[in-house]
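Example record

The entry below shows one chain as it appears in the dataset: sequence first, then C-alpha cells.
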Amino acid sequence: MKRKLSVEEFIHQEISVKPSVSLTERIMADVLDTENHICTRNKMWWIQATAIAASVVITVMLGIQIGKSYPKATFDGWNINDAQIENLALYEVEHE
C-alpha cells in the first residue's frame, strides 16, 4: 500500500533529481524552433492581406466591366388596358 508523501518529502525528491543536459538541449531547441516558426508566420501576414485585397479589387472591376457590356435598358412605363382589368372581376369568387 502506497503512502501519501508529505509536501516536504515531495519537494526533497524533486530537488534530488539530476537534470539531463541532452534533454534540456532538446527542449530548448524545440522552444526556439517554435518561436522562429511563429515569428516567420507573423511576418508573412501582409502577403495574405495583399492577396485578399487584390481579389476584391479584381472582382469589383470584373463586375463593373460586365455591367457596362449590357445595353442600356429603358423603362417607359406600364401599358395597361382598362378593359382587360375590368374582366378580372369574372375570376373573383363571391362569398355569401
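Notes for this example: The helical segments are 7-16, 21-43, 45-69, 82-86. Residues 4 and 16 are 18 Å apart (CA to CA).
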